[in-house]
């Protein structure tokens, strides 16, 4: 999902930038990918009885990954969140 969003943001921020490969039918594949991954995320439990547990575990993993990524960007890279690297 993040990769699809990154492609859309890159095309929006740098439309004239040279690319080795252009996605055909842009942005349709990216939007379909985002919607598809959203569907999978909402329907990822094998049975209705454990749906809440699956969402808690998935949410916990996403929270930990987000905190580590935020720490990495702020402390190690010494940048603001979502600051583009236009070098």
TrEMBL record:
The answer to whether keyword Membrane applies is yes
Domain of life, per UniProt, equals Bacteria
Q: Where are the transmembrane segments?
A: 23-42, 54-73
Give the record's keywords alphabetically. Answer: Membrane, Transmembrane, Transmembrane helix
Tell me the protein's name: Putative amino acid transporter
